[in-house]
């Protein structure tokens, strides 16, 4: 990968990480708010909100981990390599999904595998 591309991706990741960390701060503040003087309906709504925020936070934690892994790869020079076959991941794929760790061919292979496993499971179920 060209150095200019690497620099560009690094910038994307650093900005994404800042955004995520900022979201965490906001979410933590919201999670710490203790509902007081609420009736049961309000309490139920608050519980639902709480669990949605927790799910969101889990997803963002996952994204943050991917972003950090990508930044580490940029630093050690392995960014953009397919985890499965070791080839360079297509640049247009990385543009669309900067944290991608598989090239298009390997990704399609993986999806085919998942699909056939699902199908296999369903056939089995019919028997
Ligand atoms: Zn591959």
Fold and architecture overview:
Helix content is 76%, strand content 0%. With 127 residues, it is an all-alpha fold. The protein has a domain at 3-79. The longest helix has 37 residues, at 40-76. The protein binds zinc ion. Zinc ion is lined by residues 82, 84-85, 87, 102-103, 105-106.
Span between termini? 50 Å
What kind of sheet is the major sheet?
Answer: none
CA radius of gyration is 21 Å
Number of strands: 0
Low-confidence stretches: none
In N-to-C order, the SSE pattern is: HHHH
- Helix segment count? 4
Mean pLDDT over all positions? 88
Measured by DSSP, the beta-strand proportion falls in under 5%
| Helix share bin | over 70%
Hetero compounds: zinc ion
- State the shape: flat
Structural class: mainly alpha
Question: Brief description of this entry?
Answer:
It contains four helices and no strands. The chain is mainly α. The chain starts with a helix and ends with a helix.
Helices and strands in order, then pairings?
Elements: H1 3-32, H2 40-76, H3 91-96, H4 104-126
Helix pairs in contact: 1-2
């Amino acid at each position: 990968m060209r150095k200019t591309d690497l620099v560009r991706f690094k910038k994307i990741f650093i900005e994404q990480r800042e955004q995520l960390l900022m979201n965490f701060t906001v979410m933590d503040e919201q999670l710490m708010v203790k509902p007081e003087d609420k009736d049961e309906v309000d309490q139920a709504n608050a519980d639902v909100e709480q669990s949605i925020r927790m799910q969101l936070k889990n997803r963002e934690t996952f994204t943050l981990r991917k972003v950090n892994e990508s930044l580490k790869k940029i630093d050690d020079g392995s960014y953009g390599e397919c985890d499965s076959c070791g080839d360079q991941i297509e640049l247009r794929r990385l543009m669309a999904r900067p944290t991608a760790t598989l090239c298009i061919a390997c990704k399609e292979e993986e999806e085919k595998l998942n699909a056939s496993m699902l199908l296999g499971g369903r056939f089995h179920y019919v028997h």
